[in-house]
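FW: tagging you since you asked about this chain on Friday. Here's the raw sequence from the shared folder, copied in full. Didn't touch anything.
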Amino acid sequence: MKVREVLPEPVVPSPCVSVCRMVTETALCEGCFRTIPEIAGWRHMSDVEKCAVWGLIDRRSSGTRTQAEAEVKAKENEKDKTST
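HL: got it, structure written out here
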């Protein structure tokens, strides 16, 4: 029996395009427009969570770097507020 026969295909494909370089200013991968936590957590995410990340990627990749930077900074501010 082959592995493909046992393991189902992922429903939501990975956005990875094998261009793995983090952009310091945005904290996003240059290739897939994901953050490190999104990349690291991908295999543990539900399909709903993966679709949400794809939505973020769509906005990040079609927008300007400024929009991406603002989104990352807002996320960091949210994180800071919840940790205090």
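FW: The chain has a mean pLDDT of 84.
HL: agreed, and The beta strands are 22-23, 28-29.
FW: great, closing this out.
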